[in-house]
Amino acid sequence: MRIDIVNLILILAILLTSNDIALGKDSSASNLLLASAAQAQSEPSDTIEQIEHLTKQVILKEIELEKFNLHYRKEVGKQGRWSGWRYATLQEANFCLNLASGIYSTSERSSHFKDPDKLSPAKLERSNITSMVGYIIGASAGALELGITEFHDIQASRKGFSPKAAKAHVLSLKIEIDKLLIEREALLKIESAAPLLHYHAAEDLAEGKVLVDLRDLALLEYEKFHIGARRYVAFQKSLYFLDMTKYTCSAIGSFFAFLSQHRHDRKWNLRAGILDDIAGGLIIATPFLSRGIGVVEQEIQRHYIAPIVHDVQTRQIATLEADETVLEKLSQAITPNVDLANSPLKRMSMYRKENHYFESESERIIKQERAGKLTATQNMITGTFTGSTHLTGGILYTSAGKIANGQTLRDSRVSNYNLGTAAIVSIPGNAVAILDTLRIQVQAEINRHKASRAGKLPAQLFAANLAQLDRLEQQLKTQQ
Question: How far is CA 13 from CA 37, 235, 295, 476, in A?
Answer without folding.
Answer: 9, 52, 47, 35
